[in-house]
Design goal:
Blueprint: H1 2-15, H2 26-46, H3 48-72
Helix pairs in contact: 1-2
């Protein structure tokens, strides 16, 4: 996501001809978009995206269970 933001900023600076970015070649200005595409392709291929989604889902599940326990007055009890 950072690469996409950087690409948008560089593209805006290049289009509006602000600063030294106005003199850069087009392929340098657009390179963050290509790098972002490579990152997303790697993240999907390696399972990184799925792993992060599962971690987020597990955290939500754990929080929901803790909230239910607190509502029932069980609190954080340890197993005997």
């Amino acid at each position: 996501m950072y690469l996409l933001g950087l690409g948008i900023v560089l593209l805006a600076l290049w289009y509006l001809e602000i600063g030294p970015v106005a003199l850069w070649p087009w392929y340098v200005v657009l390179s963050p978009f290509g790098l972002a595409m490579l990152w997303w392709a790697w993240a999907d291929w390696s399972g990184y995206t799925k792993k992060k989604a599962m971690e987020k889902e597990d955290a939500r599940k754990k929080a929901r269970i803790e909230k239910s326990r607190d509502a029932l007055g069980m609190g954080n009890r340890r197993k005997r």
